[in-house]
Design goal:
Bound molecules: iron/sulfur cluster
Largest sheet: 4 strands, antiparallel
Helix content: 25-40%
CATH architecture of the domain at 2-84 and 103-175: 3-Layer(aba) Sandwich
Number of strands: 10
Radius of gyration: 20 Å
Shape: globular
Order of helices and strands: HEHHHEEHEHEEEHEEHHEHHHHH
CATH class of the domain at 2-84 and 103-175: Alpha Beta
Structural class: alpha+beta
Number of helices: 14
Strand content: 5-15%
Oligomer: single chain
CATH topology of the domain at 2-84 and 103-175: NADH Oxidase
Length: 315
């Protein structure tokens, strides 16, 4: 047992050395409560047009089906907070882009570093089977991070960590080694309702539950079709994503500087004004968003968001 604990701590220490802000361990197993909650949410069609969420349901709620033979889910957090991020609270006269998307594509950054953590673990244990994930497969990442003691899922449905708030990415290694498991953290939202009160579209329809159909992040990123007229004014000045329910969360006063420099905001994304975005050509789009998560959205979708924001700002 002591050996297992020691190995676990060596992996955690290495994750922190690589630049992750936290690392935790949970036993890989079927998640009956989450399966029930997810099924209910899907039945109510709260997922909008994101039909891919309905795919691989069994694997999504059971990592041992996703990675046969797996015993452990290792979760890591990587902050993307930077003091250069402009204060977005109450800003209604400028176009806004969600903070997470202002740096290099997090999939690339996390993947690179998770590979290093996997190799370290493989060498340490003398062999390892498993896979790494960065928001790239049917994995309930927030649930696994919560079970690994890295935080609790708040009323805004984000994972909150007492030491670093919620401006971070989550990655996982699902592996066949048995390790020592962490204790889940209890909920520290208490009687706070700031995120629910601040959401401009009432997308948080009850504590801990978000209706994607009304969420600005979904409307400006995931929704491939044109945004319905009735929601167009709701997106206000958000061109890509929405941070409001995180910006108002008191725990984000704890945010820490992103250790992976690639996740720092790029001035040539963060500092642009509406006129620049309105005149953006497809070629400039590719240049400005080279290596960025925004490039995953299509130029046409991005430009359509810009047009709606331009309308909202001029009215
Ligand atoms: S991201 Fe924005 S729209 Fe979505 S729940 Fe949070 S505050 Fe509401
Ligand atoms: S704003 Fe308040 S209720 Fe919402 S997630 Fe943060 S602590 Fe929880």
């Amino acid at each position: 047992m002591l050996k297992q604990q020691k190995l676990t701590e060596l992996i955690r220490t290495h994750a922190l050395k690589l630049g992750f802000d936290a690392c935790g361990f949970a036993k890989a197993q079927y998640l009956p409560n989450e399966a029930r909650r997810l099924e209910e949410w899907l039945d109510q069609e709260r997922h909008g047009t994101m039909d891919w969420i309905t795919n691989y349901f069994d694997k999504r709620v059971d990592p041992t089906l996703l990675v046969p033979g797996s015993k452990t889910v290792v979760s890591v957090l990587a902050s993307y907070h930077h003091p250069k991020h402009k204060d977005q609270i109450g800003v209604k006269d400028q176009p806004l882009i969600s903070k997470y998307a202002q740096g290099r594509d997090y999939h690339k950054v996390l993947r690179k570093n998770l590979k290093k953590l996997f190799s370290f673990t493989e060498e340490l244990l003398g062999g390892l089977e498993g896979r790494i994930f960065t928001d790239s497969a049917p994995v309930l990442d927030k649930v696994w991070a919560q079970r690994a003691g890295l935080g609790w899922i708040g009323k805004n449905s984000n994972l909150l960590n007492k030491n670093i708030g919620s401006f971070f990415f989550i990655g996982e290694m699902i592996i066949d080694a048995e390790l020592s498991y962490d204790t889940p953290v209890t909920d520290h939202c208490g009687s706070c309702t700031k995120c629910i009160d601040a959401c401009p579209t009432d997308a948080i329809y009850e504590p801990y539950r978000v209706d994607a159909n009304k969420c600005i992040s979904y409307l400006t990123i995931e929704l491939k079709n044109e945004i319905d007229k009735k929601y167009q004014t709701n997106i206000e000045n958000w061109i890509y994503g929405c941070d409001i329910c995180q910006d108002v969360c008191p725990w984000n006063s704890k945010s820490v500087l992103a250790q992976f420099e690639d996740l720092h905001p790029r001035d040539y994304v963060a500092e642009r004004d509406l006129e620049f975005w309105e005149n953006l050509t497809p070629k400039q789009y590719d240049e400005v968003f080279e290596g960025s998560a925004i490039r995953r959205a299509k130029y046409e979708k991005f430009k359509s968001n810009v047009e709606i924001v331009a309308d909202n700002l001029s009215s």
